Amino acid sequence: MTLPPEEALHCLASMFKIGDFAKMTQVSVKALRYYDEIGLFRPAHIDTFTEYRYYSADHLPRPNRIIALKDLGLSLEQVAHVLRDGVTAEQIRGMLKLKRSELETQAREVREQLARVDARIQLIETEGHMSTIDVVIKKVDPIWVVAAEAHVPNYENLSPVFDRLFGASCGHAARVSRITGPTIALYFDDGSGQDIRVEAAAPIAGPAPAGDGLKVYELPGVPAMACLIHKGPFDTLKQSYQDIIRWIESSGYRVCGPAREVYVDMNGVPSGWIT
Predict the structure, then answer these.
(1) pLDDT by residue (tens digit) across 92-131?
(2) Which residues contact 89 (CB under 8 A, 6 or more apart)?
(3) How many CB atoms lie within 10 A of CB 265?
(4) What does the alpha-carbon distance between residue 94 and residue 32 come to, in Å, rounded to a whole number?
């Protein structure tokens, strides 16, 4: 509405320029302009010549409401929905419960990260230097495998056992399907270190016929697997296991499934092998 010059001047005299309004509401000028652009909070008047934005005292509750809703973690889109559509208390309750769930997840992730930081600090204090062993948590997808299994009394002299098992599993995998990735050794240890069931698994493209004494199954995925890269021969793996177990314990985790050795690169001399 176009006002006569006298009325327009009187009206503007009772309004606040955007800079003054920003100071009063503790909302930045940039944010006020953005709120105007997205239709969340428009000024009372925009001068057609100068394009200055003016706000009235009646506007003061609106930015306070926006700040309060944002402080609860709602997005600007959700804030606009609440202010524009007049949602019910039950709808707001549902939005806040969802936000609470998101914040709990973030808090848990931060606590876990803090535990990993504390574990690394403890390791540095124990060893007196920054360790080159980097343990990371990965999500592992399920895969189909051909597996040969055996029971061994302990962890001594396992090479002949796995040579035989991998010969059987890889041979059968090549006959009934195709091998799709690095082979995997699994150790089902109850913690005693004795009478351990071991498997030699060859990843395949999908379900396939089982062989005599061999299993074909989908190796389950793991939502959180503690992983590290070991470079060198198998007889030096013991140190890497000690490193990863120490990291797991000091980080507040516990082992809840079989250990896996994934043989990424076994070419060349043993000093260059990657597990």
Answers:
(1) 888 888 889 989 999 988 988 888 788 778 777 776 655 5
(2) none
(3) 11
(4) 28
Q: Is residue 217 within 8 Å of 145, Cβ to Cβ?
A: yes
Q: Which of 84, 82, 80, 68 is nearest to 35 (CA)?
A: 80
Antiparallel, parallel or unpaired: β 222-227 and 184-188:
unpaired
State which amino acid sits at residue 72.
L
d(CA 164, CA 144): 20
| Residue 10, both tokens | 């009187």
Q: Which residue has the tokens 């769930």?
A: 101
- Where residue 202 falls (left for φ over 0; alpha for ψ -120 to 50; beta otherwise) is beta
Please provide the size of the chain in residues: 275
CA separation for the pair 195, 189 (Å, rounded): 8
pLDDT in tens, 135-162: 889 999 999 999 999 999 998 888 999 9
Terminal CA-CA length for the chain: 75
**Prediction pTM value:** 0.60
Query: Which structure tokens are listed for 107?
Result: 């808090």
- The alpha-helical segments, DSSP class H, found in the chain are 5-13, 18-25, 29-37, 61-71, 76-85, 89-127, 159-176, 237-250
* 165: nearest Cα among 91, 40, 87, 261: 261
Specify the 3-state DSSP secondary structure of 194. Answer: coil
Measured distance CA(143)–CA(160) in Å, rounded: 26
Q: Would you call 227 exposed, middle or buried from its count of C-beta atoms within 10 A (0-12, 13-18, 19+)?
A: middle
CB-based contacts of 163, cutoff 8 Å, min separation 6: none
Distance in angstroms (rounded) separating the CA atoms of residues 128 and 74: 45
